[in-house]
Amino acid sequence: MNTAQFTPAGTLTAEDLGRIHLIGVGGVGMSGLARLFLTRGLPVSGSELREWPSLAGMRALGGTVHMTHEASNLDGVDTVVYSSAIPQDHLEMVEARRRGLRVLHRSEALAAAMTGRRTVAVAGTHGKTTTTSMVTMVLQQAGADPSFVIGGEISEVGSGAHHGTGEHFVVEADESDRSFLIYRPFVSIITNVEADHLNTYGDLATLEAAFAEFARLTDPDGFIVTCADDPGGRRLAETLRAEGRRVHTYGEAADADLRLSDMVSSAQGVRYLAEIDGRSLGEFRLPVPGRHMGLNSASAVLAAYLLGLPVEAAEAALGTFPGVRRRFERKGVADGVLVYDEYAYHPTSMTLALRTLREVAGEGRLIVVFQPYRLYRTRDLQAEIAAALGIADELVLLEVFGPGELRQPGEGSAALVEAVPLPADRKVFVGSWDDAPVEVARRARPGDVVVTMGAPPISLMGDLLLDALTARAGDGAGVGPAGDPDGPVATAG
Questions:
Q1: pTM
Q2: Active-site amino acid positions
Q3: Residue 300: which of 287, 283, 317 has the closest Cα?
Q4: Domain holding 395: CATH number?
């Protein structure tokens, strides 16, 4: 079990960090932090082994990117930042300690950036990134100009972080390694609580206790938001209310403080009516489909209402919400086949995403290209993951992405594919990254929907699928070089 300890938020500010170096800066969490510091005017460098899309933006903002990991990358550096994906024996970590540099976990560096701001922290097993993005857009629409760090990029905006001039700081709070316990939020939003990251917590009861501990860190003058439709969220609300804490709930449940009704989801989006304390807040519409998207947006509506922001700002922001990259992200169409990318890897979020994609597919078939994320999750939740994948019409399964994990006999995707309740000719395990586009081009028909889903490397697959489908159509394009998705893992920040 992971028992890492982090230093609670204190008086350290971002400016105190001096020249900052981030190991594995291309990962979505680390690249967002780098962008935050750069837009704040701080000197930032980072090291990587792969040319991730986020690196171009970092360079454009004046950051330095080293495409190697070596001791000389730390010359002139004051603070080294790492994520939980970086091992303690990483050569830059060892060198930083040898030189006596300040070494901070990503969450500790982020906490320093939040000093002096009113933090809105979004936690939960699913929906954190989308909800954080929605809260950010509502605050922006209201003219609050918040700072934010999101575990993804808001589509069309092309950014997952920004240093704003307003008093609020919106952050996605990660429970996977307990690092969310260093934050001291003014507003805590907890979308749901389900079994995950049991390599850290051991069991659901310990995980639920950690979420309760996180909620108790909320400023007494602030408030906590949970989902009344989620069993874990409901239990958490009951526990906290019994302690006299200020908790507000949202959902379709009859006793939710912000109650949703008449929710309808289609391929064109989702809409619902909302009321609070018997007062109608009107109808809210989102251009992205999925009932879970409606629930995520309701937490943003409730938080904005309790912060005293105009309801009209929430309505306008959500009505134009473009989605988040890797969350139901449309990659393109080739030879009549529509390709999406989706980050879901936990069975609950996979089920929600695949049911929504079925709405989009209509009369077409749904083909899933899935890369499981972490061996322990794939092993412990194999039956549930297999059931979720059974929603697909066709499945192309890649090997588990589990950096730093040791595979035991019988573990991995070869075992998972056998458990998926699809006929043998409608599911396949491909051992090579390069084989996946070929397999999709062989199976997909015009009118089908294909989704790449799962661990971070699979996000690089969508363009390759489009190339393969285009080549199949006979215009001469081919599948480009894929690279190795199972290469060095210092990019998973």
A1: 0.69
A2: 128-129, 172
A3: 317
A4: 3.90.190.20
